[in-house]
Amino acid sequence: MSEQLAKQAAPPPPEGEEQVDRSREFMQRLMTGTPMLSVLAVVASLVLGALLIAFTDERVAKTAGYFFARPTDMLQALWDSVAGAYTAMFQGSILNINRIDTLQQALTPVSNTFYYAAPLIIAGLGVAIAFKVGLFNIGGQGQMLVGAAVAGWIGFSVEMPPIIHVTVALIAGIGAAAIWGGIVGLLKARTGAHEVILTIMLNYVAYWALVYALRSPDLLRNPDNNNPITPGMLETAILNPLPGFKVHAGFLIALAVVVLYWWFIERSSLGFQFRTVGLNPAAAKMAGMNVGLITTLAMLFAGAFMGLAGGIQVTGQVTTGFTSHIDAGIGFDAITVALLGRSSPWGTLIAGILFGALKAGGYNMAAAEGVPIDLVLVLQSFIVLFIAAPALVKTIFFLPKGGRK
Amino acid sequence: MTLELKGITKRFGTFTANDRINLKIEAGEIHCLLGENGAGKSTMMNVLYGLYQAEEGEILIDGKPQRFQGPGDAMRAGIGMVHQHFMLIPVFTVAENVLLGHERELGGLKGARKAVVELSKRFGFDIDPDALVQDLPVGVQQRVEIIKALSLDARVLVFDEPTAVLTPQETDELMNVMRQLRDDGTAIVFITHKLREVREVADRITVIRLGKIVGSAEPTASSNELASLMVGRDVSLTVDKDDAKFTDKKLEVTVLTVLDRIGQKVVNDVSFEVRGGEVLCIAGVQGNGQTELTEAIIGLEKPASGSISLSGRRLTGKSVREVLDSGVGFVPEDRKVDGLVSEFSVSENIMLDRYKGAPFVKAGTIDFATRNEFAEQAKTDYDVRAQSIHSPAGSLSGGNQQKVVLARELGRKLELFVASQPTRGLDVGSIEFVHKQIIATRDTGIPVVVVSTELDEVIGLADRIAVMYRGGIVGIVPADTDREDLGLMMAGEMPEHLKAAAEEAAA
């Protein structure tokens, strides 16, 4: 019967009939790819990265000069450079076999990975939740800066008992950034302004406002310092690292937030509305959902995640006073994290940890092998590129293309 | 000339849309291709027209094999196509549209104008070559498409579901044109799923099902025979229903006016009443305000004036949520866009408009057990053919998607049921099922409004029929009104002899 017939892939629709919102379709494609594609994108990027390492290596260049006389020299140099760099990266982020005399030594690489991963995971969720509603949150930088500034100000200027202080600081950062993000949602819902434009512009607003505040001793600048930097956090406002490690409670907060996000998206009534609006706003409207309200809430929540990430930056990562670069590019890395994780809770967690590992390992690689840390950025960029072009990945790995959907 | 398809096989991935199709089309006859939506008719014609390349088989013209890389090749070989959705540019004149893409063959605008004049004289079309296409009625636009094909000396003319956009009268005229073309020596391929039209005009009928040719039939075959052949089993084409038993519930629409974005009246002073226990069908050619009327009832459109009330309670001014909560079930006209989220599973779609509170949500959290139980029950009751309730709705056939929408909308206690084009694009078997559900809903004693452009459906379901034309209601007439008269009303004319009956029916 025709039921069975249509269960298989339906034939392409007749031409010229449907008008699709292309950006929405593109975003859905980014989100609905399989985890396998994410893995392959990472593998392909590592291979490309290997080529970059090899061909920028001095010894490789030198041995290439007499390649036809003694090819083994160059091949050996190639292998040495790539294996060395990636081994250093592995040793810096997961385990260094040569240094496992004490438990602390053995755990240091992994703990560093978790240390770098915490804000990445949380910020990744700030992009992911917007993706779920079909919104592209490029405003991570601005939202993080607002969150960091507010959390930081409470952290260094208000005196409070321990634990309460850091909690209040983080919550204040979350609230401020939520409002910062919510403005975008409200404008989008009320006026139809595009969220990409709005978030990018608000990045500038937040950045320059922070720069201004950092120049003025009445606002954020440390009066004892001529540079635009704030005072250090008070002892009570610091997420204390585990003794002997860099990692702090921020990673546990990140795990808790992932679980919260999972419940919200997969189980809650509001999350169901989020997903419906993201996949099909027309059907959402017809089902009685308030699309404008959901849009506003989505950006509000996105800002909240970013604010928490910003708060963790000042209370956990850089506690000795911060500058206008306290976001450390995480607002943008978060986009990659969410894309790689397909905006799913566990995917974003894994992607955040992977990027944390790239950071932790990248520093070690730079120190041990002299490969510039910028390689990590290049790897991340390749990952985005491959995820944005699934057909390319499928071609590289000889996977079946499949028809149009 | 003779056009022959030999062993044509077309696959999309693992799905075989056409399986070893053999078809012979001769000059001077109307060859009907009858099949349900998704049976593979359009795929076959797209292969013929060069839009798709077949994996196997060949196309022969007068015994010579052809290779079509694109529609251009097909056109040069004498194959023309009149598409279901017109491929005309509204702001161009008739002659410019005919010229488009064939500038050299026709010899510029002058040649195109000459061709239009000559062809329309030959077939009695009466088309002004300098009229803007957007000013022409739909039926005339279709003739422009026909002229466009004929101006390139098409000897085979393919009509792909040409009557979907026409009134019954325009359909009759189109059939006359087809006969004329046939007598002129053109081979005509007429693709449709409407049995009445096939029986009226066809010289030969080929039935296609699941991508295969399952047989041919004589034009003298009865509708039931043709339908059985098309579906592969016996089907009933009439809707069985008892007389309406009225209840106190009532939908009242009073002088309702809805404006579109540029301030034009798309629903114009519409008033009617639907009592509990009856079906009011709103007939009319698509685009005469039916969509806006139903959207006003559901709360998506804010009316400019007038009111809608349900059993004494006002619906106008309420949000969609509030209207749904007051017990209105709604089947939107475009289920893929408005009725379902195709990425969502069947069970998620079952709760699409019941995302708050009991029974599916407790303390802000979705109660999966209750929801899945409900979905399983709905799947059984409504015979939804899906692998499981967790399959994405987008993987279901149109009929099964519609069953999901129905299961959701009829799955709670209703005070009013509004269904817009409930069987559009469905196979005959599903249509039967949907009609039964609509009548069963009527028999629970609530008012039911069905909007449909298919006259057969309207006549089968309705207790009374309201015909809409250009935003207004031409008249409300009894269900046994003559088809011809309904056709006139769909074109905006109210037959004199019906006026007395209409007044009685409207009361």
Automatic annotation (TrEMBL), chain A:
Broad class of where this protein is predominantly found: membrane
UniProt topology in membrane: Multi-pass membrane protein
GO CC aspect terms: plasma membrane
Compartments where located: Cell membrane
Pfam families the UniProt entry points to: BPD_transp_2
InterPro entries reported for this sequence: ABC_transp_permease
Region described as Disordered: spans on this chain: 1-20
Protein's UniProt keywords contain DNA damage: no
Superkingdom assignment: Bacteria
Single annotated GO MF: transmembrane transporter activity
Keyword Cell membrane: yes
Stretches that traverse the bilayer: 36-56, 77-94, 114-131, 162-184, 196-214, 247-265, 286-310, 322-341, 348-366, 378-399
UniProtKB keywords: Cell membrane, Membrane, Transmembrane, Transmembrane helix
Protein name according to UniProt: Nucleoside ABC transporter, permease protein 1
Source species: Agrococcus casei LMG 22410
UniProtKB/TrEMBL annotation, chain B:
GO molecular function: ATP binding; ATP hydrolysis activity
Keyword annotations of the record: ATP-binding, Cell membrane, Membrane, Nucleotide-binding, Repeat, Translocase, Transport
Chief subcellular location: membrane
Membrane topology: Peripheral membrane protein
Record GO cellular component, one term: plasma membrane
Keyword Disulfide bond assigned: no
SUPFAM superfamilies for this protein: P-loop containing nucleoside triphosphate hydrolases
The ABC transporter domain, residue ranges: 3-235, 251-495
Location within or outside the cell: Cell membrane
Keyword Transmembrane helix: no
Name of the protein in question: ABC transporter ATP-binding protein
Lineage start: Bacteria, Bacillati, Actinomycetota, Actinomycetes, Micrococcales
